[in-house]
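Before going further, learn to read the protein records used in this course. The integers have meaning only within a learned vocabulary of local backbone shapes. The record below shows the convention in full.
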Amino acid sequence: MHSSTPARSSHAGMAANQNGAMAVDPAKLQAFVGKMLGDLGGAYTAPLVHLGDKLGLYRDLASNGPATSHELAERTGLSERYLREWLANQAASGYIAYDPPTRTFSLAPEQAMVFADEDSPAFMQGAFDMLVSINESLPRHEAAFRSGEGIAWGDHSACLFCAVERFFRPAYRSHLIGEWLPALDGVVERLKSGGRVADVGCGHGASTVMIAEAFPEAEVVGFDSHAPSIEHANDLARRKGLDNLRFEVADAQSYRGEYDLIAFFDSLHDMGDPVGAAWHAKSRLAKGGSWMLVEPFAEDRLEDNFTPVGRLSYAASTLACVPGALAQGGMALGAQAGPARLLGVIRQGGFGQARVAAQTPFNLVIEAKL
């Protein structure tokens, strides 16, 4: 006897074919292929964005206005045939505008903020620089996936360090002095009256310079374990003529001095021993001082980070942050650690107080005190 009741699939909403395999939903397949075409279009376009920046094409369109491919070639001295194809790709991507009657291409103000204006809070060319640099290290990443070993920051292309600074600088310029520091307990007042600041993991020193410029009475020191980055930062300090600023080679557990503010800008999750870094920060903090952590924004639950920002952060974490931490032989927090894990590291480091003091769609700002 066979029951007249239809058999139920063990996978809700999915039907099995005669061979027992799960049947394909044509509409879902079409939608997924469409998504992949969009992703592939973005991936193939990313190098062209990088080229457009390096060749000054966005800046020309922003400064000099609409142009045909021939006019842009005359203005830039570049090949018209290459420019014709580049412009078509950019217009198809929605990155520039096209006017059919005049056959001219232009950059809208919003597009210029993203591609052409280095002072814009929405400027994103640094992310494309990072992508190009990281792609140069892909053979190392393949080997690392097989071995489990890390990839030290110094083993990446030198361009990565410039790209990281360029990527983070707009957010620091937009938020650091006017929003993040005022959100901390009494820090602005201490720096105005001559406090001391340590910027640990400072890289090329963009954040360090901003603090030194905003608080000329404060003594500001940037520390990084990567000697070439410190050399670059000291050159920057000399060009700026800032007498209250200096940079030294030191890692997160070897810098000296006592500080009213110790700042880690997007660096704790890159460290092999973040708990040890926390203990050292505690030992170097002046009475009443603050330890400020700026970290990529993330939620605590994995599934809550399946967003465009989370997607980008997990990719960068896989290719730069986690390999860098593993190269130090310790914990690898990753770029989406989330507030609970970060606050846990702070507590393990001996701090009695910690809170999320500010946040943006891209950043968490945490303050810890003794």
In short: The chain has a mean pLDDT of 93. The radius of gyration is 25 Å. DSSP finds 14 helices and nine strands in the chain. Residues 26-54 form the longest helix (29 residues).
